[in-house]
């Protein structure tokens, strides 16, 4: 085996997590580097990819603390690097909170002791920098990031840092690319070759190429291949390439703009231009027979108090819709109550409600649901007159030449423009579909996500998800972009990426967002929740509203290695060799990539083959590796066995996934084991944002990074040999982590230690070719009952138990800790989870599993999935004082003593309880009582645990009483 990599020994998870979170939160305003290329679910932060690659290439020395310092310098995550990245001034209010009184008096006050009129007044440049540095140094790491650029946004470490880096590593680099290439040559004999055969949104191959590696990428999905190609060639392209892309897109946009203006589709005879169109679906009320517009809310803009009001029109058999601007409070309140509530039509005349499913005519036949809507034919562009659901334009938001904005109900001219758009698309649809300018593809049936448009609207083809106006707008742009040369890959790629970006913001699925933060009102993105949700009301932007998408306002981030390769192929057929395979497979993933990407693929399928002639277009749905079941496991084994063969003996693999379920870990371990790989390390990095994100509810909000090598020896072992090895490995792993951890700024959280136990178990297991003669593939695919665990899972569970019992809370004496029961340890460790801001139910569940405690729900004060915490002493009150296990434990009695101290406002009450209650061996357990009270006292000073402050202060008073009781 070659020299271990830094990431196999340690990884600064806290700092990398903070940086990953900062990048995730950047959003459109601060421009994440690759999001402009197009939509992809779960695209990993580039800073995480960079940190992993550096960690894989960097060798370790005999000084792990110095290794960590050098790694942080390379990533500009050390103190000097953070100061170098600082690009925002700390404001005066924050300065005053961070500086001492003397410093405030010297720098922030005038000669009369009054605050200076503005920050920095009267200070030299040097003094201003000194003040900022003093304050900046007193911020914690996360707070410092608020004032810093991301690592990718600066050139790299300072010259002084490079001297230290080169001295430690024996390199001669002056920049990151040179360092990466020198480390690659040292480890592999050539510039490192990084491969990703399930490249998705392209983060891994892009970042690898940007920092100087030879990058290989492939995916079965044409959408993923296109996004990765776009990342490498459009974002990462040279000046000449980016200039040509901009010219192609701008010329196509200008031509489309000219066509739309010439047809008068977006303007009226007053010179007003559309900003946004608002549509509503209509259905007949069973009570009255009138066509009712189905709106969950009639509010258009909260900020400008714009809403719609409906009026019955018996002559027309429907409702007129008036638009009210600057509406009064009563009108706005009424407008929030639409005609659709909780999935039911509420008749405006009778108040009776009817299920939308009943309006559609859905019914049960032989135990199965039969949809009632007419299925649209390919030639349909709008509902037919006899369809259950109709569609209606009910509001136009105009931009007036003098800068004003006007909301109005559509008039006859507006409806004529809608009719013109429909007539145009009826004329062009057949020709444009043949040429690939608009979709012709049917929506796959039976999918979890793709069935939704069929069931709820009767739409059968992807172009049904767009209004005639939207189809004309996008189809015209594609035509104008690719028509000059449909075989030009750069031209076609630039057009496809542009349209792909626009598809997120322009379709019948873009619901109305009237929130006050949206000003005049906006539309939601199509995939606001990773599904294809049909909308009762939706908005449509004008051409200018998607210009930023069509004209490619992409981040410029040139890649260092221009020889990057992107292929369209199945990962099971990879023939390229890589030194490092770095993958983020759809393992146990909740996202149906193969279904959702079909929305985009429908626009690309006829364009890409003529330009990307070396790409093999295959059936994505049939061949896709989907996240569960035996077929999935077999596909995963085939992929990773293939990759193991396509790497040198000293090569490395890094597999990313997001899951904490031990059964998932067990299966993944067996998949990788069966593929001829062995685990060497695992680290969890927080990559999901706290709100929204990919996972909601009880999920790990982070990414596991599993490091592997090829298993080159055919060793065998017995289970009775394995368990002692795992116990030693778990303890060794935990000891190394606690030695490296920084008490003032913890590098590892509770779940990191738990994860380390999983990884330690996998490290031991996967180094053997077989255990007790078990056929690993047979064990992986063997059918088991719902409660039956594989031997693999049992071993992993044992590793977690070892870790739970081995990790002693800081400040708690080992002798006293080991005298406590499993339930007591669980309760106290649960408080430690809360101290570290861990509130996921899954973390507490795994902790309980580690201690072997089955019944612990009585500990919960709150049990919501992401807001879990245990009870305080006062919240327990007299509960759980009688019975077995925790109820009879010393910890429970100490908690009641604290409660008595609070209730009586006197520590004597608590002391008397502990001394007189027959269940407490006061004098025999006095030192353990003091240890428990000492553990609880600091909770008085934890800002995010205010519910503990009074009890913790009482614990301190009670501890004093016990201490002085002789």
Automatic annotation (TrEMBL):
InterPro entries (alphabetical): Antiphage_assoc (IPR049953), DUF1156 (IPR009537), SAM-dependent_MTases_sf (IPR029063)
Keyword Cell membrane: no
Keyword set, alphabetical order: Methyltransferase, Transferase
Protein name: DNA methylase
Organism from which the protein derives: Paraburkholderia piptadeniae
GO molecular function, a single term: methyltransferase activity
DUF1156 domain span: 10-74
Pfam families with a match to the protein in the record: DUF1156 (PF06634)
Gene Ontology biological process: methylation
Keyword Ligase (UniProt): no
């Amino acid at each position: 085996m070659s020299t271990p990599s830094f990431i196999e020994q340690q990884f600064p998870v806290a700092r990398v997590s903070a940086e990953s979170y900062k990048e995730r939160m950047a959003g459109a305003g601060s421009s994440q580097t690759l999001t402009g290329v197009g939509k992809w679910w779960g695209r990993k932060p580039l800073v995480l990819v960079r940190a992993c690659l550096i960690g894989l290439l960097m060798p370790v020395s005999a000084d792990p603390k110095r290794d960590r310092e050098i790694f942080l310098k390379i990533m500009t995550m050390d103190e000097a690097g953070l100061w170098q990245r600082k690009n925002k001034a700390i404001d005066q209010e924050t300065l005053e909170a961070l500086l001492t009184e003397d410093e405030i008096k010297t720098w922030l006050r005038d000669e009369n002791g009054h605050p200076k009129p503005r920050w920095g007044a009267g200070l030299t440049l040097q003094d201003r920098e000194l003040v900022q540095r003093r304050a900046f140094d007193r911020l914690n790491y996360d707070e410092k990031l608020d004032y810093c650029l991301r690592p990718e946004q600066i050139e790299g470490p300072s010259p002084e840092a490079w001297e230290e880096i080169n001295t430690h590593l024996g390199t001669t680099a002056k920049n990151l690319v040179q360092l990466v290439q020198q480390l690659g040559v040292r480890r592999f004999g050539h510039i490192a070759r990084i491969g990703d055969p399930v490249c998705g949104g392209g983060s891994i191959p892009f970042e690898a190429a940007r920092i100087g590696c030879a990058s290989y990428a492939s995916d079965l999905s044409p959408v993923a291949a296109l996004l990765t190609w776009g990342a490498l060639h459009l974002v990462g392209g040279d000046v000449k390439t980016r200039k040509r892309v901009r010219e192609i897109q701008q010329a196509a946009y200008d031509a489309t703009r000219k066509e739309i203006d010439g047809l008068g589709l977006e303007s009226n005879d007053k010179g007003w231009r559309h900003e946004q169109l608002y549509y509503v679906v209509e259905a007949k009320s069973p009570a009255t027979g009138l066509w009712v517009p189905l709106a969950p809310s009639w509010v258009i803009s909260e900020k400008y108090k714009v809403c719609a009001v409906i009026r019955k029109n018996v002559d027309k058999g429907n409702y007129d819709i008036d638009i009210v601007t600057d509406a009064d409070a009563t009108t706005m309140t009424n407008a929030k109550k639409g005609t659709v509530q909780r999935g039911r039509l509420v008749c405006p005349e009778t108040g009776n409600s009817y299920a939308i499913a009943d309006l559609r005519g859905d019914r049960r036949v032989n135990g199965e649901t039969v949809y009632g809507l007419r299925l649209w034919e390919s030639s349909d562009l709008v509902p037919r007159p006899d369809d259950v659901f109709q569609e209606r334009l009910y509001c136009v938001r105009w931009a007036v030449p003098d800068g004003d904005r006007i909301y109005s109900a559509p008039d006859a001219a507006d409806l004529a423009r809608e009719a013109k758009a429909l007539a145009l698309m009826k004329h062009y649809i057949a020709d444009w579909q043949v040429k690939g300018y608009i979709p012709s593809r049917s929506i796959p049936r039976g999918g979890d996500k793709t069935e939704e448009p069929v069931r709820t609207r009767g739409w059968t083809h992807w172009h049904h998800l767009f209004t005639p106006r939207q189809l004309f707008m996008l189809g015209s742009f594609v035509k104008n972009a690719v028509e000059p040369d449909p075989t030009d890959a750069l031209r076609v790629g630039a057009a496809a990426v542009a349209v792909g970006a626009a598809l997120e913001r322009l379709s019948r699925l873009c619901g109305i967002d009237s929130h006050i933060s949206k000003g005049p009102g906006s539309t939601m993105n199509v995939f606001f929740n990773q599904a294809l949700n049909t909308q009762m009301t939706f908005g449509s932007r004008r051409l200018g509203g998607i210009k930023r998408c069509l004209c490619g306002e992409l981040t410029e981030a040139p890649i260092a290695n221009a020889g990057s390769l992107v292929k369209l192929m199945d990962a099971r057929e990879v023939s390229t060799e890589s030194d490092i395979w770095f993958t983020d497979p759809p393992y146990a993933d909740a996202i149906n990539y193969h279904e959702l990407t079909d929305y985009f693929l429908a626009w690309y399928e006829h364009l890409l083959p003529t330009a990307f002639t070396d790409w093999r277009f295959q059936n994505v749905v049939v061949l896709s590796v989907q996240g569960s079941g035996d077929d999935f496991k077999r596909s995963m084994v085939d992929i990773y066995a293939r990759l193991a063969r396509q790497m040198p003996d000293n090569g490395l693999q890094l597999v990313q996934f997001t899951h904490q379920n031990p059964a998932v870990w067990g299966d993944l371990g067996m998949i990788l084991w069966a593929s001829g790989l062995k685990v060497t390390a695992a680290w969890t990095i927080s990559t999901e944002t706290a709100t929204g994100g990919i996972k909601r509810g009880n999920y790990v909000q982070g990414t596991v990074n599993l490091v592997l090598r090829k298993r080159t020896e055919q060793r065998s072992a017995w289970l009775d040999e394995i368990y002692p090895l795992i116990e030693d490995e778990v303890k060794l792993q935990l000891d190394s982590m606690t030695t490296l951890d920084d008490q003032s700024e913890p590098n590892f959280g509770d779940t990191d230690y738990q994860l380390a136990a999983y990884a330690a178990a996998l490290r031991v297991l996967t180094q053997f070719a077989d255990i007790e003669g078990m056929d690993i593939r047979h064990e992986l695919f063997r059918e088991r009952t719902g409660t039956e665990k594989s031997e693999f899972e049992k071993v992993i569970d044992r590793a977690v138990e070892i870790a739970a019992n081995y990790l002693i809370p800081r400040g708690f004496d080992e002798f006293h800790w080991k005298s406590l029961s499993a339930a007591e340890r669980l309760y106290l460790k649960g408080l430690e989870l809360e101290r570290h801001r861990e509130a996921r139910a899954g973390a507490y569940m795994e902790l309980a599993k580690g201690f072997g405690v089955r019944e612990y729900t009585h500990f919960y004060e709150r049990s919501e999935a992401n807001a879990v915490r245990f009870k305080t002493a006062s919240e327990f009150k007299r509960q759980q004082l009688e019975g077995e296990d925790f109820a009879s434990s010393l910890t429970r009695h100490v908690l009641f003593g604290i409660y008595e101290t609070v209730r009586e406002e006197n520590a004597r009450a608590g002391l008397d309880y502990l001394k007189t209650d027959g269940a407490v061996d006061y004098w025999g357990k006095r030192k353990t009582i003091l240890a428990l009270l000492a553990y609880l006292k600091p909770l008085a000073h934890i800002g995010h645990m205010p519910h503990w402050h009074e009890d913790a202060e009482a614990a301190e008073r009670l501890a004093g009483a016990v201490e002085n009781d002789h």
